[in-house]
Design a protein that fits this description.
Blueprint lengths: L2 E3 L5 E7 L4 E5 L21 E6 L21 H11 L4 E6 L2 H11 L4 E7 L11 H9 L7 H13 L4 H8 L9 H7 L11 H5 L13 E6 L8 H9 L3 E6 L6 H4 L1 H12 L2
Parallel strand pairs: 3-4, 3-5, 5-6, 6-7, 7-8
Antiparallel strand pairs: 1-2, 2-4
Helix pairs in contact: 1-2, 4-5
Length: 273
């Protein structure tokens, strides 16, 4: 059985892989179908990997009250999942926007989170990329054949010209360490449920810096992440007393796709410390 009811009766879906200590994984977006996480580079080899589709995302139901999709409010769904699984605590991983929900849950239910892994997390509130760093990361790709079109799309988006979804699609090569058939397939996987158009505005209604948490925290950045750069992960790591920052070379916003072995080894080492 891979469904359970949240506190308000909303039906939520999750997948479970592997055996071992539980590791709950939250997708980003906000609003993405958790299946894009795959097995996070093979973390299910030594962990019971549990991928949750947040409310209104993927195969989970849309709640009657959309405001309950704000990232802070979704912490209650993680507690409902823990109770459903029948475990005292678990390790928690959040990717990108999912890192905000992960940090909120860790702050509100401190005894329930053993350690926290934040993969290419957005900044301390919503988004805090450093413009100069982002420009440098993108400019380093200037010799690649797709660069001119992606740079033009980025300029149009910043100026408010054109349709956002189409421009972001053209910019997508910036978000990856390498742009080839494998990363294109991962970026444009039409088998996944699309994010609801209203999700982003609702998700980010919560604001403010995450509260420091006592458990170990690993913040992972991709050195070629032309979506948000490395500064947000550095800020997140600095926010927590036991925070650790790790930089993976040659990868973008989804490091487990491009360097699965290296990514899984880094996370395994952290979780087993």
């Amino acid at each position: 059985m891979t469904i359970f009811e949240a506190y308000d009766g909303t039906t939520l879906h999750y997948d479970r892989f592997g055996d071992g200590p539980p590791l709950v994984a939250l997708p980003g977006g906000p609003g993405m179908d958790a299946r894009y996480l795959g097995t996070l580079g093979g973390l299910d080899a030594r962990r019971q990997l549990i991928r949750l589709d947040p409310r209104g995302c993927g195969r989970s139901a849309e709640p009657a009250d959309r405001s309950s999709c704000a990232f802070g409010a979704q912490a209650a769904d993680l507690e409902a999942l823990r109770e459903h699984l029948g475990v005292e605590s678990f390790d928690l991983l959040g990717h990108s926007a999912g890192s905000l929900t992960a940090q909120r849950y860790a702050a509100e239910f401190r005894s329930r989170v053993r350690s926290l892994v934040l993969v290419t997390p957005v900044g301390r509130a919503a988004r805090e990329p450093d413009a100069a760093e982002l420009a440098t990361i993108r400019a380093a790709r200037a010799e690649e054949e797709w660069y001119a079109d992606a740079a033009e799309a980025a300029e149009s988006l910043a100026a408010g010209r054109g349709e956002t979804a189409a421009l972001v699609r053209r910019m997508t090569p910036f978000f990856w360490g390498g742009w080839d058939a494998r990363t294109r397939a991962a970026a444009f996987d039409d088998t996944l449920a699309p994010a609801a158009p209203w999700m982003r505005e609702v998700f980010y209604r919560d604001a403010g810096a995450p509260r420091p948490v006592p458990m170990p925290v690993l913040a992972v950045a991709g050195a070629r992440d032309g979506m948000i750069g490395t500064v947000p992960a550095r800020l997140v790591a600095a926010c927590h007393p036991r925070g650790r920052f790790a930089l993976l070379d040659g990868v973008g916003h989804r490091p487990w796709v491009e360097r699965p072995g290296e990514f899984a080894a880094l996370v395994d080492e952290f979780l087993n410390a």
